[in-house]
Amino acid sequence: MADLPNNLSMLPHPIHAHPERPDSAASNQKTPSATATQRATSTSFEPSPLASNENDATARHPTNSSSDEENLPPDYPRDHDPYQLSSKLKTESEINLIRANTSRKRDGYGPITLNKEASKAKKLQDFYENQNENIQKWLKPVDEHIRLAKVFAGENHLKYQIAVRGSFAANIILAVLQTYAAISAGSSLSLFTTMADAIFDPMSNVTLIVCHRAVKRVDPRRFPSGKARIETAGNIVFCFLMTAVSFIIIVLSFIELKNGNPGSETKKLHLPSVIAVAIAGVTKLALFCYCWALRNVYSQIRILWEDHRNDLFINGFGLLTSVGGSKLKWWIDPMGAIILSCLISFLWLHTAYSEFQLLIGVTADTQMQQWITYISMTHSPDIVAIDTVRAYHSGPRIIVEVDIVMDADKTVRVAHDVAEELQMKLESLPDVERAYVHIDFETSHKPEHFLKKEL
């Protein structure tokens, strides 16, 4: 639990007792918004004892401009914002003022926009923008997140299908095209490297499609926790297959370098092969641009986007070394094949390492842990404290463990209902596969689970 205060940097005591909520008659009243004199317009704050709220910050340089009043953040009901996080939101004008105030100071190392103070101001601006995004995300009800996720999925379903199926169809055509280019070119190992990568692309698409369907078709009696990890396992297998092919090409390239190219300083140039690889590169560029917008929404499309990005460099570099071996020196071609194969091996092994981390159970990112903690803290006034929050991957999805503290005098029915509602709420979050809620009445005990190091 020592890491929890660091996860919620904006709350001085994240595991303190739940703030008192208004009664049902006053639950619909909105919290008065902070006035212009209470809102900060500079990067410096001074604490002052305010009668209304001790946690409010006092601005050094208040402003009376009408634009600030128009940019004030929306008010939130008290029961949706018990910790008054909305008072910490920064308006766009306040964030811009940070850069303006700090950038006036020169440090003697360059123009105003490039000096150290300006760089610090940019980092501070990014911090407040991320903080605004997190606060607005936390204050939005979970039901609204679910509704927006469904709306977004419906609106982008056609784009998703075009990205997946379009990439699959294009990869089949490009595999045939680059196979022709490699075979017709004859002895160009660089083009054989691009051919091997192109042949494995549709196989990768098939793996993604099959795994995606397998995840949706689950026998709960045989796989009670689902089959989401099959996608991660499939990616790992494919990574090692691609790496094995790259190693074979490296061996062939070393053999050619050892034997040499007697009788000629260059290799024969086959123009149709060059045109075929160039067409493949242009097609990959188009697919890369199309998948860009959805790369952070669907895990399948992100893998496709990374594959198109890698193929752009592979096709371009392979074409360059193949032409170099035909126009300059013959050894440029096998040397280019070695460099490409080493790059492909590195990229796929790096992907395999990332997938292994998900399969082993690496912790979720900090923002996700913060969001889960805030949801648990504000779920019910019967929760008096949060003991432990864990969030870790199980394949592409996340397992959540939350230990909540309730009054020892609460009935079993009340405790069960609060924990069950919190569990259902957490499991409805995007990417959360399972949520486990443990109830306790104090926080001085040892953790319920210990780290088992022996088999």
From TrEMBL:
GO terms for biological process: inorganic ion homeostasis; intracellular monoatomic cation homeostasis. The keyword Transmembrane helix applies. One of its GO terms (cellular component) is membrane. Residues 167-360 form the Cation efflux protein transmembrane domain. It comes from the Eukaryota. It is a multi-pass membrane protein. It is found in: Membrane. Residues 31-44 have a biased composition (Low complexity). Its main location: membrane. The keyword Transmembrane applies. Residues 1-92 are annotated as: Disordered. InterPro entries: Cation_efflux (IPR002524), Cation_efflux_CTD (IPR027470), Cation_efflux_CTD_sf (IPR036837), Cation_efflux_TM (IPR058533), Cation_efflux_TMD_sf (IPR027469), CDF_Transporter (IPR050291). Residues 378-440 form the Cation efflux protein cytoplasmic domain. SUPFAM superfamilies: Cation efflux protein cytoplasmic domain-like, Cation efflux protein transmembrane domain-like. The chain crosses the membrane at residues 162-183, 232-255, 275-294, 330-349. Keywords: Membrane, Transmembrane, Transmembrane helix, Transport. This is Cation diffusion facilitator 1. GO terms for molecular function: monoatomic cation transmembrane transporter activity. Residues 50-66 have a biased composition (Polar residues). It comes from Lepraria neglecta.
